[in-house]
Automatic annotation (TrEMBL):
Lineage start: Eukaryota, Fungi, Dikarya, Ascomycota, Pezizomycotina
InterPro entries tied to this protein: Fungal_SecMetab_SDRs (IPR051468), NAD(P)-bd_dom_sf (IPR036291), SDR_fam (IPR002347)
Protein name in the entry: NAD(P)-binding protein
GO terms assigned for molecular function: oxidoreductase activity
Segments traversing the membrane: none
Species this chain originates from: Hyaloscypha hepaticicola
GO cellular component: cytoplasm
Keyword Membrane: no
Protein keywords: NADP, Oxidoreductase
Family designation: Belongs to the short-chain dehydrogenases/reductases (SDR) family.
Length: 308
């Protein structure tokens, strides 16, 4: 059955591959890029808009009509808010979100500026990693979840959007793309030059776990259809331009974006809302593990539980 996916950070690497594979499967995709070109009849030259141009090129594929592209820079509070309101508009009559459900929202935006050793890194560079890898994705998730309620004024008074009434939107599964570098129980001391990146991913992991717990407390009386499953995924050692750096150690098990996404789609389907192992609860019981109700879980692209 066709689903609606939202991919934040889709102009390159695994984000782009997510969009490409989802379109080929017949799903509707809302994707973001930092600066999409204006709507026009001919595609802009690749050099004009950089990586975003290949995302726009997908609109010309057989299922390209199912792709909607919005602008979002997760390092900017204003950009996230503007993007969220654009998503809200899709909930009005005739919009792609008219039925009020985003089946899966994948928060993929991230950055790796190598090297980023804690003993050497600048304040600005460290802040860049934290804003892009931690604060941005978590705040984007917060804003998307707020779409389940009508827009309000600063005083908390509901307002009617000038572009017409919109259906409250429910995000059924939130997927954060994390990394094994962010595991605190499986510390990777050999990763020299990954200090800020690892710290940002560890912070992301803790943030999304708290988010899941907070949602469980706030929404315990809501119907199951209105609740959100929160997942973290490690995509593997994927060969992308972001990972194209010269390292002092051998990286084992390198896979292509196509391999990573094909596997992650299976994991998301299984562990996400309505899946055969929704939230990983069945796996937990089978393994004799005890976990909090509504807790977020961390998985590898192969569907194996990863230590936080």
């Amino acid at each position: 059955m066709p689903q609606i996916w939202l991919i934040v950070g889709a102009s390159r690497g695994i984000g782009f591959e997510f969009v490409s594979q989802l379109l080929s499967l017949g799903h509707t995709v809302i994707a973001t890029a930092r600066a999409p070109p204006p709507i026009q009849t001919t595609l802009p030259p690749p050099s004009q808009y950089g990586n975003a141009s290949q995302l726009w090129a997908l609109t010309g594929t057989p299922n390209g009509r199912n792709l909607k592209i919005l602008e979002c820079d997760v390092s900017s509070d204003a950009s996230i808010n503007a993007f969220t309101e654009q998503v809200r508009k899709f909930g009005r009559k005739g919009g792609v979100l008219e039925r009020g459900v985003i089946d899966f929202a994948v928060l993929n935006a991230g950055v790796l500026v190598y090297p980023n050793r804690i003993s050497e890194i600048t304040f600005q560079n460290f802040a860049h990693h934290l804003h892009t890898n931690t604060i941005g994705p978590l705040f984007t998730a917060q804003r998307l979840l707020s779409l389940s309620s009508p827009p309000t004024t600063t005083a908390g008074i509901p307002v009617s959007p000038t572009w017409g009434p919109s259906t409250p939107l429910t995000v059924r599964t939130l997927v954060f793309i994390s990394s094994d570098s962010g595991s605190t129980t499986n510390f990777r001391a050999f990763e020299d030059g990954f200090g800020a990146y690892a710290a940002s991913k560890a912070a992301l992991n803790q943030g999304l776990r708290h988010l899941a717990a907070e949602l469980e407390r706030k929404n315990r009386w809501k119907r199951r259809e209105e609740k959100t499953v929160v997942l973290a995924l490690h995509p593997g050692e994927v060969s992308t331009d972001m990972a194209n750096v010269s390292l002092d150690w051998d990286v084992e098990g390198i896979i292509t974006p196509r391999e990573s996404i094909a596997c992650m789609l299976k994991v998301i389907s299984e562990k996400g809302w309505g899946g055969s192992d929704e939230g990983g609860h069945l796996t937990s019981m089978m393994d004799g593990m005890k976990e909090e109700t509504g807790a977020a879980t961390f998985w590898t692209w192969e569907g194996k539980r990863y230590p936080w």
